[in-house]
Write a structure and sequence with these properties.
Elements: H1 3-22, H2 26-48, H3 50-59, H4 64-112, H5 115-120, H6 123-165, H7 167-173, H8 181-214, H9 216-221, H10 225-277, H11 283-325, E1 346-355, E2 358-368, E3 373-378, H12 384-391, E4 399-404, E5 407-408, H13 414-418, E6 421-425, H14 435-440, H15 448-457, H16 484-498, E7 502-506, H17 514-528, E8 532-536, E9 548-553, E10 556-561, H18 563-569, H19 572-583, H20 588-604, H21 616-627
Parallel strand pairs: 3-8, 3-9, 6-7, 7-8
Antiparallel strand pairs: 1-2, 1-4, 4-5, 9-10
Helix pairs in contact: 2-4, 2-6, 2-11, 3-4, 3-11, 4-6, 6-7, 6-8, 6-11, 7-10, 8-10, 8-11, 10-11, 15-16, 16-17, 20-21
Length: 629
């Protein structure tokens, strides 16, 4: 990137920040600039007062001028103090409001992104953008506005005072300015690159922390504390190295100004000292000039530091803008159709879907009748969860149609489409709020009677007396203060409150013990009444009463019917049913392990390969087909 390209980029970023976040605070900005101009001008007034103080009081001995000059200097400091307080208060307000607007907009935009976006952008990375990068932008407001206001005004007025004393002295004082132009441009490019590296390292640190804290139990059980600590230390060292190099580069610009100031003062002393000795200039004039130039270099140093601050923040702004410019690939149509009324039928017609080179659905066709319960069964990777993602438009098919009540899902607005569904999964997403808030989720239109009926239907009332503050009990991070069955019942209560016509149950009882499963299943049965319900389950005992069971294998629907019909026909469902009930195992993993044990036992006995009476080879064959073992 050339200096000109970089300048254009900086101007573009500043214009973007102004249009989106700063322009709306124009009134506050003008007020702060007035205060800053007032504060900055006081330095010029103070340097100007050096001439009468030295010439009239110290040299000529005019006693009457003491109170006049002293009062003027006191007034300068009082005005400067008031202006400083006023501009800092207004700048803080502008900075915090702008940062709050940016954080909120960034979060809103990130939540609109597709699931594929979040698969490639880990939470720690996004947290770094929303928190740390926005904070860096907030620092820019103070640095740039202060530099443009107080320091620029101070510099102009102080240079005006210096010029009024002697323009030649002023020219000599600034003799080093051209020397620092090229080094400053090089340093700015260096700071921008190092700042990008520091931001990337910070994002990796946030991601590592997110993974450690969310996976603290596996870390402990697998004794990974030292491993994670070493990984974190390595990332921390990368951040320290990049950040120190960025700070060093940013500090180099004020350092160059100090070097220039030293040469300037030396030149003024040599050139101006001879004129004072010769009587051509008074001591008061020299002190006024010397004070003005001395004061001028301090705002000049701060203006130079602004460049370093900007280059550091520009790396963060580039990433924020990049995220805000990223548009979701799944969007509502320009002219959406109205959502279907009543309880709709759900249908997939010859749907094909691939993730890269991986085929997930291969011509899947199925119908979930309106108001009935349809179960999806099949091996892991058969495409069951992908069907749910298609229905809610977390993903779109490459070929085929997804119909809700006869209307293609892609023809509905995304909010209207997702407003048709309630989802209860095996991992109930709870927030670190009270139980009441986790059920209501911000709704204020739910009456006490309605809430109580929902709590009863979802069996939440069964465990409320055990909680210290009943509905106002905090549930902890991710609902950690509740058991798995209690979290599931909270999710069911949410779904009851949503009262949507379509219900999606994704392994809703797979992680529960037998007692909790029975209670949750009763609540799910209550929830499913009168709704079009689709169920994903590995435990066939939980779906045997479904109105329709759809068997999936390798992205296709290979069979469908009732439980009894599928058993009578034989095939995959009958094999899976036989496997589950022979082993009495509730999960796919336990079934596969049982089949593996049978294979090992059969191998030791010299199996002939035919189906033996104890079912050894049958279990092995089914386990290989369904679980790849």
């Amino acid at each position: 990137m050339t200096p000109q390209t970089q300048n254009d980029s900086s101007a573009h970023l500043l214009g973007w920040l102004w249009r989106k976040y700063l322009r709306k605070h124009l009134g506050l900005l003008i007020g702060s600039l007035v205060f800053m101009a007032l504060e900055g001008s006081m330095l010029g007034a103070l340097s100007y007062m050096m001439r009468p103080m030295f010439d009239q009081i110290f040299v000529e001995g005019q006693h009457g001028a003491i109170w006049l000059v002293g009062g003027a200097i006191l007034g300068i400091f009082v005005i400067r103090a008031g202006a400083s307080v006023g501009q800092k208060a207004l700048l803080a307000l502008i900075s915090q409001r702008s940062a709050a607007d940016m954080r909120t907009e960034l979060l809103d935009h990130l939540m609109e992104q597709d699931s594929s976006f979040h698969q490639t952008h880990p939470p720690g990375f996004l947290i770094q953008r929303v928190q740390s990068d926005v904070e860096a932008v907030g620092q820019v407001w103070n640095a740039i506005i202060t530099g443009a206001g107080r320091d620029l005004v101070s510099l102009v007025i102080l240079m005006g005072v210096a010029l009024s004393v002697d323009w030649q002295w002023t020219l000599v004082a600034c003799i080093g300015t051209p020397i620092m132009v090229l080094p400053s441009a090089v340093v700015q490019k260096f700071v921008r690159r190092r700042a990008r590296e520091a931001r990337d390292a910070g994002a990796k640190l946030s991601t590592r922390l997110d993974e450690v804290f969310h996976g603290i139990i596996p870390v402990k059980l697998n004794r990974l504390e030292q491993y994670q600590s070493n990984r974190y230390r390595t990332l921390t060292n990368d951040l320290v190295r990049a950040d120190v190099r960025a700070k060093l580069g940013a500090a180099a610009i004020p350092g160059l100004i100090d070097v220039m100031a030293g040469f300037g003062f030396l030149g003024v002393l040599v050139f101006g000292g001879s004129e004072i000795i010769a009587g051509e200039k008074t001591i008061g004039e020299f002190m006024s000039f010397f004070t003005a130039i001395g004061f001028a270099f301090e705002p000049l140093r701060r203006l130079g530091a602004v460049s370093g601050v900007w280059q550091n923040a520009a790396a963060a702004i580039e990433r924020i803008k990049e995220l805000l410019d990223t548009q979701p690939t799944l969007q509502s149509p320009a002219l959406p159709k109205p959502a279907p009324k009543g309880t709709p039928e759900v249908r997939l017609e010859n749907v094909h879907l691939s993730y890269g080179d991986t085929k997930v659905l291969n011509g899947a066709t199925l119908v979930a009748p309106a108001g009935k319960t349809t179960a999806l069964v099949g091996a892991s990777g058969a495409g069951k969860s992908t069907v749910f993602n298609l229905l809610t438009r977390l993903v779109d098919p490459q070929l085929g149609k997804v119909l809700i009540g006869g209307t293609e899902a892609k023809d509905l607005s995304i909010p209207d489409l997702r407003g048709l569904f309630s989802v209860v999964s095996q991992d109930a997403a709870l927030f670190d709020e009270t139980l009441r808030e986790n059920i209501l989720l911000g709704r204020s239109d739910v009456s006490i009677d309605r809430l109580n009926s929902v709590l009863k239907a979802a069996h939440v009332q069964d465990f409320l007396p055990k909680l210290s503050q009943a509905l106002d009990t905090p549930v902890g991070p991710r609902g950690s203060a509740l058991s798995g069955g209690q979290r599931q019942r909270v999710a069911i209560a949410r779904a009851l409150l949503r009262n949507t016509p379509i219900l999606l149950l994704d392994e809703a009882t797979s992680a529960l013990d037998a007692q909790s499963e029975q209670v949750v299943q009763e609540a799910l049965d209550q929830l499913a009444r009168g709704r079009t319900t689709l169920v994903i389950a590995h435990r066939l005992s939980t779906v045997r009463n479904a109105d329709k069971i759809v068997v999936m294998d390798k992205g296709r629907v290979v069979d469908e019917g009732t439980h009894d019909e599928l058993l009578a026909r034989g095939g995959i469902y009958a094999e899976l049913h036989a496997l589950q009930f022979r082993t009495d195992g509730p999960t796919a993993d336990s079934l596969a392990l049982a089949a593996q044990g049978q294979r090992q036992q059969g191998s030791g006995q010299g199996s002939t390969g035919s189906d033996s009476p104890d079912g050894t080879n049958l279990l092995s064959r089914i386990a290989r087909r369904w679980f790849g073992r």
